[in-house]
Amino acid sequence: MKKIVKYKNKKVLVMGLAKSGKAAARLLRKLGAHVVINDRQPLPENSDAKEMVAEGFEVVVGGHPLELLDQNFDFIVKNPGIPYLKVPLLMEALKRQIPVLTEVQLAYDVSEAPFIGITATNGKTTTTTLIYEMLKEGQLNPLIAGNIGEVASLVAEGASQDQVLVTELSSFQLMGIDSFKPQISLLLNITEAHLDYHSDIEEYRQAKLNLIANQTSDQYCVYNADDEVIVKGITQTAATCVPFSLYREVEGAYLSNGSIYFKGEKIIDVDAILLKGEHNLQDVLGAVAVSKLYGCDTASIQRVLMRFSGVRHRLQYVATIAGVDYYNNSKATNVIATQTALNAFDDSIILLAGGLDRQHDLSGLIPYFPKIKMLISFGQTKERFKQLADEYSLPCVAVDTLEEAMDAAVKVAREKDHVLLSPACASWDQYPNFETRGDHFIDLVEKLKNKNL
C-alpha cells in the first residue's frame, strides 16, 4: 500500500456503511484521518454501526443531520448508493465545495497496482469477468474488484506493483472521483439508465465519461466505435484511444467474416466462442482489446473464450444433455432482458418464463414467437403468458413452479433444442431474488444430467 498524506490529519465523514463504508473508514484511519461515520439506520437494528462503535469510531446514526457539517470536514466519502439530490446534507456539502468521494478513489490513492476500469450501461459484469479470466489465463496477476467481487479499497490495500486491479465501475462510483485514472479504460455502451438517481441523462453520461477524464497519453481508452455518445465523449480524454466495432474494420478489435480480429490479427472464430448473442460479442470485442493492450497472449484469450459460459444467471450456459442445451438467464426480470436473450438464438427455443405479476406489458415478446418451439409459463404470471401464446397459436403449457416447468421442458426437448430460463418477470412470487431462482434451475439441470449419466 502506498504511503500517502492526502488524508493525514484531515477530518473525513464516511456516509453509509455496509462493506464499502466499513472498509473506507478503516482505511482512512490507517491513513491518519479523523473519521466520523454517518448511517441513516438506527443503532438497535444496525449491526454494522455497532461493529464500528466497538472499534472506537465516532458513529452518528438515524439520519443525515445537516449540523454534522459544522464539524468542517475536509472530505466526504459516501456509499455510492446514496443519491446526491435527495440528501440535504450532501447538497449543502456540494454548495460548500467539500469534496465528495467514493471508496474507489481511496482504492486508487493507495494502490501500488495499476487499474483497468470498465463501465457501461449493460454488459460490464460479463466483460469485467472476461478480462479478469483472460489476464489470469495469461499469468498477468489480475485482481478483480469494484462492483464485482471484493470492495476495491480492500483489494487495493494488499495489491503489489506486479498485479493489476480489474474493476467494474458504476456511474454512482465514478461521480465520486478526483484523480482516479486507469491504465486502461473501457467504455462499452452508454444508454439511458438510473434517471431516478441522476438529475438528467447528461449527468449520467458525464458520470460514465469521468472514467476517462484524467487519463494521459501513455494510457489507453478502449471505446465502442458503434456508440455515438461514446464517440462524442472520447474528445474529453488525452488517452490513446483504441476502438472496437461489431460492424466495420477499425484500428482495434472488430468482427469480420465470422471472426474476431485485433489490429489485423485473427483472434478466434465466432463459432468457437461459447457465449451466445450479439450483445455478448460486443463484450468479447471490448475484452479482447483490453487484454491485448495489457499484453495478454492470443492463445490465452482463445482458451477463455472457448470455455467461458457467462456470468452466473446472465445467459449462462449450464449443460448439454442428450443434445439439448440448457441456459440460465434468471437475471432477465423484464421483457427487454428476455428479448436480448431470445436474440442470441436462431430458433428451437423452449422458453421458461414467469414470476411476479407486476402487470408489465408482455407483448414485446410476440416478434420472437417464431423462434420459440414451446413456451412454458410458471408462477403468478403463468396465465397471462398462456393467454398471449394462445392468441398467437404458440404452443404453451402453464404450470405452478419452475420444477414443473423443467419437467415439461424435458418432455418436449429434442436434440439441438435450447431450453432457456429467461423469465421476463421478477422472482419475488416464489424466490427471494433472481439468484436463488437461477440456482434452483441449475440444480434441476444438474439432477437431470446425473440421471442421464
From TrEMBL:
GO terms assigned for molecular function: ligase activity
Reactions accelerated catalytically: UDP-N-acetyl-alpha-D-muramoyl-L-alanine + D-glutamate + ATP = UDP-N-acetyl-alpha-D-muramoyl-L-alanyl-D-glutamate + ADP + phosphate + H(+)
UniProt KW keywords: ATP-binding, Cell cycle, Cell division, Cell shape, Cell wall biogenesis/degradation, Cytoplasm, Ligase, Nucleotide-binding, Peptidoglycan synthesis
InterPro entries documented for this protein: Mur-like_cat_sf, Mur_ligase_C, Mur_ligase_C_dom_sf, Mur_ligase_cen, MurD
Keyword Ubl conjugation (UniProt): no
Short name of any one Pfam family annotated for the protein: Mur_ligase_C
Pathway: Cell wall biogenesis; peptidoglycan biosynthesis
Localization: Cytoplasm
EC number: 6.3.2.9
Lineage: superkingdom: Bacteria
Principal subcellular localisation of the protein: cytoplasm
EC supergroup of this enzyme: ligase
Domain Mur ligase central residue range list: 118-290
Domain Mur ligase C-terminal, residue spans: 313-425
Family statement drawn from the similarity comment of this UniProt entry: Belongs to the MurCDEF family.
Role description: Cell wall formation. Catalyzes the addition of glutamate to the nucleotide precursor UDP-N-acetylmuramoyl-L-alanine (UMA).
Protein name: UDP-N-acetylmuramoylalanine--D-glutamate ligase
Organism in which the protein naturally occurs: Turicibacter faecis
